[in-house]
Specification:
The chain is of the alpha/beta class and about 475 residues long. Among the domains are: about 150 residues, Alpha-D-Glucose-1,6-Bisphosphate, subunit A, domain 3 (Alpha-D-Glucose-1,6-Bisphosphate, Chain A, domain 3), CATH 3.40.120; about 80 residues, Alpha-D-Glucose-1,6-Bisphosphate, Chain A, domain 3 (3-Layer(aba) Sandwich), CATH 3.40.120; about 90 residues, Alpha-D-phosphohexomutase, C-terminal domain (TATA-Binding Protein, 2-Layer Sandwich), CATH 3.30.310.50. The protein is built from 14 helices and 21 strands. The strands form four sheets. Strands 1, 2, 3, 4, 5, 6 and 7 form a seven-stranded mixed β-sheet that branches. Strands 16, 17, 18, 19, 20 and 21 form a six-stranded antiparallel β-sheet that branches.
Length: about 475
Amino acid sequence: MAADLSQIVKAYDVRGVVPDQWDEPLAERFGAAFVEVTGADAIVIGHDMRPSSPGLSGAFARGAAARGADVTLIGLCSTDQLYFASGSLGLPGAMFTASHNPAQYNGIKLCRAGAAPVGQDTGLLEIRALVEKWSETGAPQPVAVPGTVTERDTLADYAAHLLSLVDLTSVRPLKVVVDAGNGMGGHTVPTVFAGLPVDLVPMYFELDGTFPNHEANPLDPKNLVDLQARVVAEGADLGLAFDGDADRCFVVDERGEGISPSAITALVAARELARNGGKGTVIHNLITSLSVPEVVRENGGTPVRTRVGHSFIKAEMAEHGAIFGGEHSAHYYFRDFWNADTGMLAALHVLAALGGQPGPLSELVARYDRYAGSGEINSTVADQPGRAAAVRAAFAPRDGVTADDLDGLTVTSPDWWFNLRASNTEPLLRLNVEARDERTMRAVRDEVLALVRAPDSPGTPDPSGDPSSPSGV
């Protein structure tokens, strides 16, 4: 198969349409290249519920074993369960998933031992180069002594580790609706929640990689509609929605209202700081709410601001010895989980916080949700640098306003801030605005959008970026 690897090897993973862009023979070469580049003598492999996942992961295992590595197959798992296996077993790992992408997609998330990420700067480009070479010349001869392939069940150990990190012994009974989106949450939630004082109402727990009910992407509001309605109908205390590989978790309160991932980041940060004696560093990306660094400081911690993206968060986590990190995309990272992200652990923190006091979730999170945010608004723009420069020229000279370029353009004043970032893969500018009140937020948002979408710009607004219906939460 003559593969165009530039289309499937992304910044942090491999992802593409099966079998159009990649297939099992190519997966086998990726397995061999992964062992070659990492120098691993043993690896662990897991996969999600997509129809193509068992075949692709099996092919990867064959390629790895042919290069002499012993392979441990953990079968169906969430991405954070694979990270657990990598961390607890001390092995490099490969997770076969395309997260929330449609059914015809699949991919590989790779990590070194201890769940350390593998991206373009940490081995993925070398892996790609080997696969391209072998695609042209043929795979290398197998080593004299191939590795073994064995199976292992890690689900119970994964659940036990998570539960060891959150004290749920004294929480009051809670009624919880969980929407697994036919993804891997349907596999992990029953085991993790077993024994907890939780009346679990499952939604779409059947593992089905064709996603018959809705996309397994809880950050798109349309995919939360079923959960929101069910929470209200059941009179539940809260709702949880997981994405396809169950590494992200979105929270809905008792009214069926979505809770900002920034508020969840602040809540979990406060709890993790309490676990660590009121000391520690917390990483947050630059589009999380100002409430996050405020809450961190109020609870004795040190906030560190970083770029958007898990590779940057994980790098900062390691550099600063941080205890926790959060992104507005609902990725939550924990030092005690090998600096890897796990939505399940964040969900357990929410259950513990809610169940440890008598009030509803909406009241609990109000202390962490202090500002008015726009959500992420996308605009299709051909001249991204030119539009960003026009925005800078309009705002930067104003009194009390500062600008920085850590990740795109961030403009800050005493009463508001906004960030304007170009997409790495599409002709989009992504805008996030936050202010002390809704009126100010809307005014700043509309002024920036007017500049971004000015008539002399050759781009046209993306429908998902309608300011009356901002995308994201």
